[in-house]
Amino acid sequence: MSERNLSEYEEMWTTERERWALFRSDMGYLPIRRGDPPMAEVICDEELSELVVAKMLTAGVAVVVDFQDCQVRE
Questions:
Q1: Which domain of life is it from (predicted)?
Q2: 45, 53, 49: which is closest to 20 by C-alpha?
Q3: How many helices, marked H, and strands, marked E, lie in the chain?
Q4: Could you tell me if 36 and 73 are in contact, meaning their C-beta atoms sit under 8 angstroms apart?
Q5: Cβ atoms within 10 Å, residue 27
Q6: How, if at all, do strands 20-25 and 63-64 pair?
Q7: CA–CA dist 10, 68 (Å, integer)
Q8: Rounded distance between C-alpha atoms, residue 69 and residue 45, angstroms
Q9: CA dist list (Å): 10 to 36, 44, 68
């Protein structure tokens, strides 16, 4: 895994942080793009996924346990 790979996800915990949430389940965390409907961001590289989640948690991205909390209503 390269630093370049991690930088591809950087907006998830920086400039677009409010558009994202972390869905918490028994299996861990899954990044979710807020919206109607919410969309999961599946990262198939386990090491990369763990790094992205750690960055998001450190940055204070919201953690939710219900997908409805990820919906954006206008």
A1: Bacteria
A2: 53
A3: 2, 4
A4: yes
A5: 6
A6: parallel
A7: 25
A8: 26
A9: 23, 17, 25
Q: Which residue has the higher pLDDT, 27 or 12?
A: 12
pLDDT of residue 71: 62
Give, for 30, the enclosing helix (H) or strand (E): strand 28-33
22-26, 49-53, 68-72: segment of lowest average pLDDT: 68-72
User: pTM of whole model > 0.70?
Assistant: yes
Question: For residue 35, what are its two tokens?
Answer: 């919206």
- As a whole number of angstroms, the distance between CA 37 and CA 20 comes to 13
Cβ atoms within 10 Å of 25's Cβ, excluding its own: 8
Phi, psi at residue 4, to the nearest 5°? -60, -40
Cα–Cα distance, 74 to 60 (Å, whole number): 23
